[in-house]
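Table S2 (text version). Query chain:
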Amino acid sequence: MGQILGLENRMLGPEKLAEFRAEFRSWMPICRRFAYLDHAAVAPLPLPTGTAIQKWLDQAVHEGDVPWLQWSGNLTACRQNAADLLGASPDEIALVPNTTLGIHFIAAGFPWKTGDAVLAVGNEFPSNLLPWKQLASQGVEVQIYDPPADGELVVDEILKQITPSTRLVAISWVGFASGYRLNVHHLAIELNRRGILLSLDAIQGLGIYPLNVQETPVDFVIADGHKWLLGPEGAGVLYVRKSNLEKMRPVGVGWNSVQGSFSFAATELKYRDSAARYEGGSHNMAGFAGLNASLQLMQQMRQKYGPTIWEDAVLDVACYAEKRLRESGAILTRPNAAEHQSGIISFSWREHEPNKVRQNCIDKGVVLSCRLGRLRIATHGYNNYEDIERLILALQSVNA
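Corresponding structure-token output:
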């Protein structure tokens, strides 16, 4: 079992955590109705995010495209904020509609040769498995590593799967069902030493756990904003290390992919010298206005409470949830080491059918998911112990 005390050396004290949670909960109207524990699916929006989207909507309704330059400024700010989150340059950030499309940009754009291989993981979310499997039709060998049932991803075991043909490893930072958090730094260093690229599906980790691409040589990072970044669906980010940009064939090319795009007369394939070349067409202006507001709000909280505040708060409440679930009879597995833990916990509840339990919980004001035949909670930093107690009471009321 993960130990709350095991986090003491890196966490803020309980008073500061309580202060942080109280402040951020004031930005989360969802707390007035639900104990919301479904952030690995779709997160609720903070008030400033909703305000930013509403502002765009009001302008679009009453002013048409007159404020378009202001909307474009939101894109620039969003790209910069995403770059700051990763320690990247804004030229290495593309604004993409979702994680799936970002992964396709990489899979379809890599200069594969017949006999090359990609290594993927068998327990992945389909969007980080199917695009790689599709490469088999191009003569690419698709290697699949199947981790143990608990989802543990040991870097040394992954490295054992590498062959002389392996050109790229595609893997998730945090398992969507297992909640196991990969040691990305260790893997990236070892792959970089071998000349193998790393594509990281970061949708279940970005915003909560630190990742500095200057220190950790990840080649590609993809994440939609609608989970831990507390943004709307349809607005995500793709990081492409600058040194890889010219190796890749741009996919989804359109008017906005090339230099001089706003002349609307560019017909030559002179690509923009940044990752923005992947932004081929018009943007989801409302979505990126919202995502930018969420990134700004989360960064403000980091600046006020410290750079690890989100990780500390997430792991604290998740460890409390694990403790209470075990005490109440839930069956679950979770890594002992804090470095591999996340806010995601999957469990079985007294042999009850998961979807029935989930609906009962929602009826009681507690939101969670079902994944791969089990219940799944995903706690965020603003969740508190009272949310977990509401969960336990809701679970205990099933067929009471």
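Notes on Table S2: The first helix runs from residue 14 to 25. The chain has eleven helices and 13 strands.
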